[in-house]
Design a protein that fits this description.
- By secondary structure, this protein is of the alpha/beta class.
- The chain folds into 3 domains: 3-86, Arc Repressor Mutant, subunit A (Orthogonal Bundle); 90-159 and 265-286, D-Maltodextrin-Binding Protein, domain 2 (3-Layer(aba) Sandwich); 164-263, 3-Layer(aba) Sandwich (D-Maltodextrin-Binding Protein, domain 2), CATH 3.40.190.10.
- 42% of the residues lie in helices and 25% in strands.
- The protein is built from 9 helices and 12 strands.
- It starts with a helix and ends with a helix.
- Residues 1-58 form the HTH lysR-type domain.
- Keywords: Activator, DNA-binding, Plasmid, Transcription, Transcription regulation.
- This is Transcriptional regulator, LysR family protein.
Length: 290
């Protein structure tokens, strides 16, 4: 027995007329009648009562009708799912992301992607930049949304945006009312910084070095929101990407830095040899429009 036999059975059961059923299947009536007879022979029971001029379901046919619908429905779903998988509209998409990439707007992009491809299974992991590079090399993620770029062999980087760094200052600090501040004017301050994000830490250290000082770090945390709260608690000032200001925190203010303003790149990274159809769809969605 094949799935097509069940489709023939359902068509006749729906129309209760061989001619109309054959037309709905785009086939001639005699072959349809033959296939129904073949199905009945396989099942060793009659599905339709042919004793009168009307076609009606037998008790056995009526009993099997719903089961046939379920099997055909599952078969159609399987076929559609396989097609979606082949076309890059279904399957599993594994991504790693840095916290600042999510604050930049990755969450909105993921929502758009999941709406466009409801059959896609998106698995997301928040990871440090170094861990993202390792995961790409080991084929544990398909795409990495990172900060500062990844200069590793076999990885390709697509820059998505560039975020300026801003000073994060307690709201009761003497500089809190300033619209802008020179980074050099913060040389005597104590800072909070990143612990696991080496790339962002390097960007901040380089910016301070160019401003003529080495920052004194009193606390290192893994998450931007942790640093915001530590600034609010008086542990020091912070230098965070402008996108992190969207999180907000009580007791802190964001102040623009005067030129030259250090910036942080938001990038998506892939392994140059591996790109699933679904990952390619995600790349198309997030790439800047020319």
């Amino acid at each position: 027995m094949e799935i097509r036999h069940l489709k023939y059975f359902l068509a006749v059961a729906e129309h209760l007329h061989y001619g109309r059923a054959a037309k709905s299947l785009n086939m001639a009536q005699p072959p349809l009648s033959q296939q129904i007879r073949r199905l009945e022979k396989i099942l060793q029971m009659e599905l339709f009562d042919r004793s009168s001029r009307r076609v009606t379901l037998t008790n056995e046919g009526q009993f099997l009708l719903e089961a046939a619908r379920e099997v055909v429905g599952q078969s159609d779903h399987f076929e559609n799912l396989a097609k979606a998988l082949r076309m890059g509209e279904a399957g599993q998409l594994r991504i790693g992301f840095a916290a600042s990439a999510m604050n930049w707007g990755l969450g909105t992009k993921l929502r758009q992607f999941r709406t466009a491809y409801p059959e896609a299974d998106v698995i997301a992991h928040q990871m440090s930049v170094a861990d993202q590079a390792t995961a790409l090399q080991d084929d544990r993620i398909d795409l990495a949304f990172t900060v500062g770029g990844l200069n590793y062999e076999n990885l390709q980087v697509v820059d998505l945006d560039e975020e300026p760094l801003r000073a994060v200052i307690p709201s009761d600090h003497p500089l809190a009312g300033m619209e802008t501040v020179r980074l050099a004017d913060l040389s005597h301050e104590t800072f909070v910084g990143y612990r696991f994000d080496d790339h962002l830490e390097d960007i901040i250290a380089s910016a301070c070095y160019r401003a003529g000082f080495t920052p004194k770090i009193s606390f290192q945390g893994a998450q931007s929101h942790t640093l915001l709260h530590m600034v609010s608690a008086g542990f020091g000032l912070g230098l965070l990407p402008a996108c992190d200001a969207r999180m907000g925190a009580d007791g802190v203010v964001f102040i623009d830095l005067e030129p030259p303003v250090p910036t942080m790149r938001i990038s998506v990274v892939r392994h140059w040899r591996r790109l699933t159809p679904l990952a390619e769809r995600m790349l198309e969605l997030v790439k800047p429009k020319e």
